[in-house]
Amino acid sequence: MTLILAHRGYAAEYPENTMLAFKEAEKAGADGLELDVQMTRDGELVVIHDEKVDRTTDGTGLVKDYKLEDLRKLDARFKFQSLPKKEQIPTLAEVLEWLSGTGMVCNIELKNSIIPYEGMEEKVIKMVRDYDLSDRIIISSFNHYSIVQSYLLAPEIEIAPLLSEGLYMPWIYAQSIKAKGFHPHWRAAPDQIITASLESGIDVRPYTVNKEAELERLFKVNCTAVITDEPAKARRIRDKIKQA
Asked: Which SUPFAM superfamilies does this chain map to (predicted)?
């Protein structure tokens, strides 16, 4: 069965990468989450997509220039101002603690291809191990050096390279870096690439799949997972195909 991973949580209906978006994704029937990790000035791991806080909060500036306590004062409601209370930028620890009480899997994307956060891999791995979640986590990044480093530090935690463009025989590349899967942009994941990868024992989890026709196509080809802003819609389509 193709899993449904909620991209930054239930990002279509709630503020992305917040505890509210993650909890609502679970309620909507997602099998797992996809989230992004950056690092504060005092070395804390926080869940936010952009290097800057400007787009998703009422603050300005780079995450790396904030101390955690100041970052937590920001309102991450973003374009959902009608929500009754402000949302904080969560710490990775906060999310993993909540996650450990669910059955969900989680794709942690290391956001270190623009700012090379020193020691990020070690910190993420230590935290995943501390919460005993090694078998439910996939570490991905556009920084492939970083995920190889993660694999060397923790071969028991799955890694997956992110691919924004099509790659020739991506399953071969994944195998070469000891990844059990890869996460392509959905446009870089035609049926034949998915089928050949799965036949080679390599998982394929395309991002960010929101169009009904694309979700249908990926469910029908038995893709490993889809990463979507709309877990409820994906769930509805998956159920419909299963009953057909």
From this structure: PLC-like phosphodiesterases (SSF51695)
